[in-house]
Amino acid sequence: MSLNGNSQSIEGVWQTYDDETGELKSDVKIYKKDGKLYGKVVQLHVVDDLEVEATCRYCTDYRKDKPILGMLVMTALVKDGKEWEGDGTLLDPENGKTYDGEVWLVDDNKLAVRGYIGWFFRTQYWIRK
Fold it and tell me: Are 6 and 116 in contact (CB under 8 A)?
């Protein structure tokens, strides 16, 4: 009997949840490319404003007004011990802000995603799909 399965693999599809309501928001596929970690939105579960068809209307970079579905929200994190981290690597498409960040596995099915602005941070927990 094998207990390893997805053991300690950060790659895969993760479900994101609203911090305030706990409502399922999206699925993000996390993958490695050239030794760095990326995450893109592969499914949206909640679309509050159908008039903008789920675009990143507050983004200020190349993602401005682009569809959130298929968008990179985690870009080029590098491994540092058990964590992956980077400067300006996490995007919140709801407010268009990018954050310094780090991600790590809490356990095989729970991922911590922490974004920083200076000394202030917010941590979300994503669940493996």
Answer: no
